[in-house]
Design a protein that fits this description.
Distance between the termini: 24 Å
Oligomer: single chain
Pfam families: Redoxin (PF08534)
CATH architecture: 3-Layer(aba) Sandwich
Function: Thiol-specific peroxidase that catalyzes the reduction of hydrogen peroxide and organic hydroperoxides to water and alcohols, respectively. Plays a role in cell protection against oxidative stress by detoxifying peroxides.
Organism: Curvibacter microcysteis
Mean pLDDT: 93
InterPro entries: PRX5-like, Redoxin, Thioredoxin-like_sf, Thioredoxin_domain
Number of strands: 9
Radius of gyration: 15 Å
Low-confidence stretches: none
Catalytic activity: a hydroperoxide + 2 glutathione = an alcohol + glutathione disulfide + H2O
């Protein structure tokens, strides 16, 4: 499992970007993790699935609500990762009103989750291999704090916890 001091894996995530106007979109677009984190401070959180109860009611809304505070603490971008395709992440971004606050990135084949060792096997619940719920603060591609949830928990990966770490 990835740990504090490790570099993020060299993988590619996918992002579905909106454009002004009729709700048309562009993309999905590839996001090279190494290039996108170079020279930046990223507040990254991951969760098992888009549109799922805890993820939609608590996890994403906390980061949207605290987006300005993260910026004030020196965070360049907030990323939400889920083992979903970019189209689902784009629809969820619209639903959660994340535009300009949280980048919603799809890890469709769970490559990032597998490379970090932070997978969650939900095959028995019909969801396949997903990402565990966690948050991390990343500086220039290196993990500086990591908060991994226990099974079925939502106690340490919330926005308030990561924000306190970003301010420290």
């Amino acid at each position: 499992m990835i740990k504090v001091g490790d570099k993020l894996p060299s993988t590619t995530l996918m992002e579905y970007s909106e454009v002004e106007g009729e709700g048309c979109s562009i993309g999905p677009n590839a996001v090279d993790v190494a290039k996108a984190t170079a020279g930046k401070t990223i507040a990254l959180f991951a969760l098992p699935g888009a549109f799922t109860p805890t993820c939609s009611a608590k996890h994403v809304p906390g980061y949207v609500e605290h987006a300005e505070a993260f910026k004030a603490a020196g965070v360049d971008e907030i990323w939400c990762l889920s083992v979903n395709d970019a189209f689902v992440m784009g629809a969820w971004a619209r639903d959660q009103k994340t535009d300009g606050k949280v980048r919603m990135l799809g890890d469709g084949s769970a490559d990032f989750a597998k490379a970090t060792g932070l997978t969650l096997d939900l095959t028995g619940r019909g969801m396949g291999v997903r990402s565990n719920r966690y948050s991390m603060l990343v500086k220039d591609g290196t993990v500086v704090s990591l908060n991994v949830e226990g099974p079925g928990k939502f106690e340490v990966s919330d926005a308030a916890t990561l924000l306190a770490q970003a301010k420290a």
